[in-house]
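User: Quick sanity check before I run a bigger batch. Here is a single chain. Can you write out its predicted 3D structure?
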Amino acid sequence: MLELAVRIGRHTGKVPAHQVAQTLQELQKIGRSLHIIYERQCNKPMMPEVEARVENRRNALQEKAWDLALYLGCAAYHQTDPRGCAIYLWPLLPEEAAMVRQDYSPRINMDTFQRAHQSDYTHGQAIPLK
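Assistant: Done. Predicted structure follows.
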């Protein structure tokens, strides 16, 4: 995790190292929570009202992860397959970050942006669960 913090710190140059580390720890917690949700959705059938609550929680966690990634100058990809890491980060170009921050609507732009960059997550950095 320290190596990732150093790389992100070098990439952004604007976020102090201790804040990068704190943000990555928060992303790690979110990743663990999302991993549990993805695992349950994959393995257990749920009642419709429970599924709705889980879906709301999942959306809130994904939006928070997206906001934290943007703070670091990165984009977040959410891997819903429970066999791997739940969150991947990849650096945004400065003009991309400015565009996303300027015209940010979590429900529209996040989905659109992720679809446009879907294949990029393979070049991103996984946020380890432990």
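Helices lie at 2-12, 17-43, 48-71, 94-102, 109-116.

User: Great, the batch can go ahead then.
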